Amino acid sequence: MTLSLTADEHDVIVELMNIGVGRAAGALSQLVQDEVLLSVPQLQFLTPAEARDIFCRSMPGLLAGVMQGFRGFMSGRAALLFPEERSLELVRAMLGTDLSADEISELEQETLAELGNILLNNCLATLANLLNQQIQTELPQAFNVDTPHLLSRLSPAQDDEGSMIMLVQIDFSLRESALQGYLAFLIDLHSADTFIEALRRYLAGLE
């Protein structure tokens, strides 16, 4: 089952996500004392099977990620995902080039967790605030996993028939580093319906 969105509804979600990642970019720029650019070029609502196919094609191999549970007007798990071989590059861009490779490796999990906390919290909080809803988030957890096992890591008790993934592609520009990653929001179908209802009320208020 997939969600049926109008063009306006799809565009508004992209706009809201861009506001969220824009706020995250501002917070990250202060953290690294350099300009950080983030954008959302693509958003899709997918079944877990469809999302699995995309991950296996676009990010085969090992992934580095940050996972965070959330609950409120919608419930589920959010994840920030990168190809594992690029994660150290991202961490180096955030920490600076004065550290050795060993030092950066030691700080990888902590730095990725902080990055995920900033990015995921800003996106979720922006969605909730602008849609006039409430949401609470759990502490983020950094992890590494091979692509075929990603979705079972996000949701060990996953029901492919009862869940939906909002997959958001994000483009990063950090100093000299440019890379693509994904935000994946795994939500149950009831939460997805609640999210769309809140979105439609928001759109109606703009008319």
UniProtKB/TrEMBL annotation:
Record InterPro entries: CheC (IPR007597), CheC-like_sf (IPR028976), CheZ_family_phosphatases (IPR050992)
UniProt keyword list: Chemotaxis, Hydrolase
Record-linked Gene3D superfamilies: CheC-like (3.40.1550.10)
GO BP annotations listed: chemotaxis
Keyword Protein biosynthesis among UniProt keywords: no
Gene Ontology terms, MF aspect: hydrolase activity
Statement: the UniProt record of this protein carries the keyword Hydrolase: yes
PANTHER family for the chain: PROTEIN PHOSPHATASE CHEZ
Name the record gives this protein: Uncharacterized protein
High-level lineage: Bacteria, Pseudomonadati, Pseudomonadota, Gammaproteobacteria, Aeromonadales
